[in-house]
Specification:
By secondary structure, the protein is an alpha+beta fold. The protein is about 15% helix and about 35% strand. It is built from 4 helices and 15 strands.
């Protein structure tokens, strides 16, 4: 894809409608080209700092920048190169990303230009055309592969989306948040109180709850009728950060290296969302990753589940001889 890469530009963000964003400041993509029948390359610029996706204490880029760039990249390619009309509703089915090499992703003196080199695959045919798709990508910086990812989405028009939401019970009053304590920012790897989405119940069970603040300018960049996956992913990340660091108190810092997320149901605003640690396997050695499985649950319904891997900063991911942390 060398020829395609040489023509890409990083001068300004793409039109915000092409990535389903309201704020220009939240658009990371700058360009994109189609390569052959299935291939594509998209360019993005990651900011040196960001209100939510800021570098960690070790100067490492936030891995959720990769997740958001992957989301924007798939939506952009759908509209710009695959004929999916603007106004189409996109619903996540799965999201998977892995950072294998953090060295090129360290924050330095200028914003970071990154590339997603990927393949597009249609998935399913409806009465009026294709209804789903999947992308598989490589994250590339300066010609060096730093990670991999994939995403799968359902794409429907407003009429079919409305029918789908009627079946899932979207209506209802907002829940009253009582008997919970907001977790301080430093315990979940954040800088600001308003970016904390993790709350601890005051009851006997001490359950974890997802705090949903629809006034948050990044997590709720535009109006929506359900809890976005990126909000649940932020909850998964914060609970994971808390769990792995407090289980290894006084030890080295951990960085999120991988997340594999499956989406099963819409998250409704009128129902409280519980975050559940289903499995935790601490890494036994410096180079062994800690594994954590977290689910978002409303009542008896699992909305999404994430299998995450956390690596000690400064170590090397197992099986990745060229991956330096």
């Amino acid at each position: 894809m060398v020829t395609a890469v040489g023509s890409l530009r990083f001068l300004q963000p793409v039109t915000r409608e092409l990535v389903h964003r309201s704020s220009v400041a939240e658009v990371f993509l700058t360009d994109g080209v189609r390569v052959g029948d299935q291939g594509f390359v998209v360019a993005a610029q990651w900011p040196r700092d960001h209100a939510l996706y800021h570098p960690d204490e070790n100067g490492l880029s936030d891995p959720l920048l990769f997740a958001e760039t992957l989301r924007q990249g798939m939506v952009y390619v759908a509209h710009q190169h695959r004929g999916v009309p603007l106004g189409t509703r996109f619903v996540f089915r799965s999201l998977d990303f892995e950072v294998t090499d953090q060295v090129p992703l360290r924050v330095r003196g200028v914003p970071l230009p990154v590339l997603l080199e990927g393949e597009w695959a249609w998935d399913g045919d409806g009465p009026r055309g294709r209804t789903g798709a999947r992308t598989d990508v490589r994250l590339v910086v300066g010609g060096r592969v730093c990670g991999r990812g994939s995403a799968s989405m359902l794409m429907v028009d407003d009429r079919r989306y409305g029918m789908l939401r009627e079946l899932t019970g979207a209506e209802g009053p907002e829940p009253e948040v009582t008997g919970t304590l907001l977790v301080p920012p430093h315990r979940v790897g954040r800088l600001r109180w308003r970016d904390c989405v993790l709350e601890r119940g005051c009851g006997v069970d001490g359950a974890w709850w997802l705090r949903v603040d629809r006034d948050h300018a990044v997590l709720f960049d535009h109006p929506t009728d359900h809890i976005p996956l990126m909000v649940m992913l932020e909850g998964f990340r914060q609970l994971g950060h808390l769990t792995v660091h407090e289980a290894d108190a006084g030890g080295p810092a951990f960085a999120l290296a991988r997340a594999t997320v499956g989406c099963f149901a819409f998250g409704e605003f009128h129902r409280p969302t519980r975050l559940v640690v289903e499995q935790y396997a601490p890494g036994g050695t410096e180079r062994e990753m800690s594994g954590l499985t977290v689910a978002a649950v409303q009542g008896d319904t699992v909305l999404a589940r994430a299998e995450t891997s956390w690596v000690r900063v400064g170590s090397r991911a197992p099986g990745e001889s060229g991956a330096s942390w």
